[in-house]
């Protein structure tokens, strides 16, 4: 049953690559304001699910509803409008290397101001764009980094800048693909704190793919587990009860007993 509390619904989703089914029978909702983690062993389909949830890949079967509307609607204009409701930080968190951090954000803001036909919705005031970019950088703790090139930032700072860029869409739903990958434990903990702050300050809903158990227990309201062998979801709940009472392989995963989980 869809409710107002659900911002997204995944219904009967089958995902396939070139005819090979990766996952099937996925049925779940993303609740407004929650932090939902997508978990599971390597290659089970986490990134593929994320790509479906942002409309970059089309379901082999089933559908994905964003605020009640089908993300794969036949009408391209509808799809574009829906995708503007999503902010995304991809795994590499790549920023355009030739632009300063501030210009990266301003570029993303310009794109977010286009209408369903790709035209700018209103004339742009560069000073206002720069101000907004500075505001978003301050929000992620990068106040002094507007003029710097991405190569001049640390890995953790680049992730923060990529999150700030994802916020430029002013979207209520933010997707993060392995935000802590490659970060040291301290930078990773700072990023967790930032995700919690964004939810508190902006009321965002966050869906994140992660391998990091520390991160999962620190930020996630619920964890969705995909299983590579069964090719479907095996659990969806708060990580703490899942660690105690979840299916065997999920408990093993959450207790770091990797031997029992592929
Ligand atoms: N473009 C593609 N074409 C064909 N198969 C693909 C493609 N992308 C992914 N796959 C396959 O789909 C399956 C799921 O891949 P996916 O990257 O979604 O897994 P994952 O859970 O995110 O993995 P990891 O944790 O290692 O990043 C894998 O078997 C992978 O080989």
TrEMBL record:
Keywords: ATP-binding, Cell membrane, Membrane, Nucleotide-binding, Transport
GO molecular function ontology, one term from the record: ATP binding
Ribosomal protein keyword on record: no
Domain of life: Bacteria
Entries under InterPro entries matching the protein: AAA+_ATPase (IPR003593), ABC_transporter-like_ATP-bd (IPR003439), ABC_transporter-like_CS (IPR017871), P-loop_NTPase (IPR027417)
Domain ABC transporter: 8-253
Presence of the UniProt keyword Ribosomal protein in the record: no
Record-given protein name: ATP-binding cassette domain-containing protein
Species of provenance: Sphaerotilus sulfidivorans
């Amino acid at each position: 049953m869809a409710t107002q509390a659900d911002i997204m619904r995944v219904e009967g989703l089958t995902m396939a690559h070139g005819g090979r089914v990766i996952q099937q029978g996925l049925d779940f909702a993303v609740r407004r304001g929650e932090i939902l983690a997508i978990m599971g062993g390597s290659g089970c389909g986490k990134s593929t699910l994320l790509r479906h949830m942002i409309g970059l890949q089309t379901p082999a079967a089933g559908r994905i509803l964003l605020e009640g509307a089908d993300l794969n609607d036949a009408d391209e204009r509808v799809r574009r409008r829906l995708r503007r409701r999503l902010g995304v930080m991809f795994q590499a968190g790549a920023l355009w290397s030739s632009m300063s951090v501030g210009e990266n954000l301003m570029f993303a803001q310009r794109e977010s101001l286009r209408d369903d036909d790709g035209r700018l919705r209103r004339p742009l005031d560069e000073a206002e764009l720069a101000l907004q970019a500075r505001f978003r950088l301050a929000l992620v703790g990068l106040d002094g980094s507007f003029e710097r090139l991405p190569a001049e930032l640390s890995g953790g700072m680049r992730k923060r800048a990529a999150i700030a860029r994802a916020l430029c869409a002013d979207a209520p739903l933010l997707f993060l693909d392995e935000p802590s990958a490659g970060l040291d434990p301290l930078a990773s903990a700072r990023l967790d704190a930032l995700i919690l702050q964004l939810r508190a300050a902006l009321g965002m809903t966050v869906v994140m793919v992660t391998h990091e158990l520390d991160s999962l227990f620190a930020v996630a309201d619920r964890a969705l587990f995909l299983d590579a062998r069964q090719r479907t979801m095996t659990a969806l709940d708060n990580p703490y009860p899942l660690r105690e009472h979840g299916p065997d392989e999920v408990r093993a995963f959450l207790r770091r007993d990797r031997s029992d989980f592929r």
